[in-house]
Amino acid sequence: MTELSRRATLKVAAGLGLAAFAVPALPAQAAPAGFPDYRFLRTAFDKSALKYNPTGELIFPCIRGTVGRVRNALGRYYLYYAPHDAPGGICLAYADSLEGPFTEYPANPIVSNVWAPHYSVSHVSSPHVMWHAPTQEMWLYFHGENTTTRLARSSDGIDFTYDKVVLSASMLPAGTSETSYARVFEHSLPALGAKYVMVFMINNQTNRRTIGWGWSADGRNWEFAQEPLIRPEEVGARDISGPSVVKRNGSTYVVYHCNIEAGGSMLITEVGNDFNLRRHLGVFHAPLPGAPDNGRCASASFGTEDGVEYMFYEAGARLEGSIAIARAV
């Protein structure tokens, strides 16, 4: 097969949700060998003491290192998070260790639900920040409304310049009502001419949330599969959301969470380096029955410090969440 034929075949398969390459789902089991067991360490901060906390609930942490990237940074690590309910607002906290505690940036939110002349919406939320090496910038992907994911860019990780809409419900099949909770990762897909992948939540007229994906050469301009990457019925859930891409064992996986009625756990699916597998591997991380998880953990973001791995996650029932830190043991 020529490279052009291979690229075309992969594009068609992507548009069909890669069904042509799918393998049967595996029985639920422990996460694959090589992944750590994360244990709750602490909450990142006391949310009741925050200066900016309009709704009492926080979601979707994203942890990023600043060393070698941001001059005169407030700390070695920046933690982005947001309320979900209106008005939302993209927030920042900082620390010199992944173990925290994190200090609230005093001028939160750094991005609000009104940004003239670009938009005026009920809320903005789900911040995901990626270090974009070609431009030496922090790129912020965030949603508002739930139909639209936007991009803003910054040299210091605090003051952002609006760029563009990168994903909207109109880019997916008719009936799509939500395209949000997007995360973007460097990941090479040579056959698609891509250097980045995006994973995100889709909702539609069935009101069952699935995981979608797309690919991009530059992180700004995207193509999207027109069928879900992972469907909730494949993993015994009603709704799945909050996906994140992780690499291990020479392969690529997607970690995501399921609705609390299905256990409130984070699940894991191996998609392979070409995103051509569908090996559902069961529970990646189970929530604590008591505080702060109270039976639900979600929206993982990962970091490593001095060889120790950490996971930041949304802990607690939906719209009651806190930002928690877990450490690998």
From TrEMBL:
Keywords: Signal. It comes from the Bacteria. Residues 1-30 form the signal peptide. InterPro entries: Glyco_hydro_beta-prop_sf (IPR023296), TAT_signal (IPR006311). The keyword Chaperone does not apply. This is Secreted protein.
